[in-house]
Amino acid sequence: MVALVGSKPASSFDDASSDGAPSSAGGSSLEREIAGLLVEVLRLEVTADGIDPEAPLFGEGLGLDSIDALEIALMISQRYAVSIRSDDPRNQEIFASLRNLAAYVGANRPQPG
Amino acid sequence: MPSGLKLVDRDASSVLFRSAAGPVGPGAFLAAAARLAACLPDRPFVNACADRLLAAVGIAASLLRGQVSLIPGEPGAATIAALAARHPGAHLLFDGEGPAPGTLPATRVSLPAGMDEAASGIPALPADLPAMIVFTSGTTGTPVGTTKSWGELVARSRAAAARFGLGGATVVATVPAGHMYGLETSVLLPLHAPVTVRCGTPLYPADVAAALADAGPGTVLVTTPLQLRAALRGARPGPAPSRVISATAPLDPALAAEAEAVWGTQVFEILGATEVGSIASRRTVAGPAWRLYDGLAFRDDAEGVLVEAPHAAPRRFGDLVRRDPDGRHFELVGRPQDLVKLGGRRASLAGLAHAVCGIGGVEDAVFVAPADLAREPASRLAALVVAPGHDAASLADAMRRIIDPVFLPRPLVLLDRLPRNALGKLPRADLLAILDRHLAARAPAREGAR
Q1: Parallel, antiparallel, or unpaired for β B106-108 and B91-94?
Q2: Residue B81 has what pLDDT?
Q3: What's this model's pTM, rounded to 2 decimal places?
Q4: Residues from chain A contacting residue B342 (CB–CB below 8 Å)
């Protein structure tokens, strides 16, 4: 079982691709891409750059709710072919922040080629 | 003296529920209900069971004690704490492994060992026995209860079974067991209709795909427009449901057509409300007209339309209807309405605006339901607010404390004044124009984020 804690980089998700790793400037391109998708799909008022990658997504922070959770699951399934199961004990971590969500997607998306 | 209606009216060899622990037939179900009833007090029961089988066992046990079950009929209607406050003598039935919620005396409902023990006989209960009180959110925030008799519930199960011809089907429901729609279709239905209900509440597309695969052939997916869209578009290829039933919000005919084409299935909708229950159905792609369930009838009075149903008092049906001369087919009259439904919750736009105007620093506010609310299941309300002391973030924080999160506006537009006309009214066209300009102004910022 993997535990993501606070702002540690997602090194514990085994990830061969480069776009899951945080860049030296902080934040990965996958993070920014997913931020943009969240803004578009959920019709958020903030800009993608305005989403703090480590802020909570649900409740406070971005203030998302369960309808958004379903839309996010649909989006990452369609866009990245990554599934979320409601019985996955990692869900609370996966959804805890944009950074965690991007790390999960990066680690689980089918690799090209 | 009427002989009463059987608690379960199914073949002895049938399967009512497919639980994680295995199939549960009438004998095992009645044995579980009797065993639970034997250790319960004579009190009304708040039923907080999330599992479909356990919720049914709890309701059956309550009936065997001649008591009523208290159930939140829709999301946000009543918390366990609120029900406990209104019914301080009630006893709580709950399931799962955690501690009992709240502070009422409580009994955990679980599957007893020896489930295949046959019951000694099938109890029959009087049709007029108050079976449950379902709660809706009142306009003042206090939950409002509607009492349903055993006869009313049984008749409605039979009407649904007759309407949908569900013989032999396995119900896979994505909706909660404790709200009226899920209660009718996945908790009460197998007691009197020839269906098997698969326990579990799949949420995400992968969950629904797994549940359909596990359920075997002949499934009926009982769901909502939002969840249907996610299941249809998000799941890995897997078995399609044989039929789909959707409710709680109007289903976009285009989405229904897509489901029928992609899954090779037929998509139906149920129309109903917590107070009156399910009353009508339609095949979405066939057109907007609904057909009343057999045994129900509309009646007019001075205030509008009532629904008459067996073993039930006439109940107000809130939406406007345009009826065919046959009295069975009708359409809902579409017009801008103050009441909206999001995520299964009902709210008044005027009520939301009034609540927001109570926030310090807010001078005026209006909530607007977007035009695509019917087509876009994940739609949100928009709000235009005059609040000189606030920015969008501080106002959103303040709103989060007083209104249900599902109604938090997207977008929230801050203005110097609202476009009230000479009569003080807010023409919808002017509100939509402001929203269009706001969204157009935002688009370049979002484009830059790609």
Answers
A1: parallel
A2: 80
A3: 0.86
A4: 67
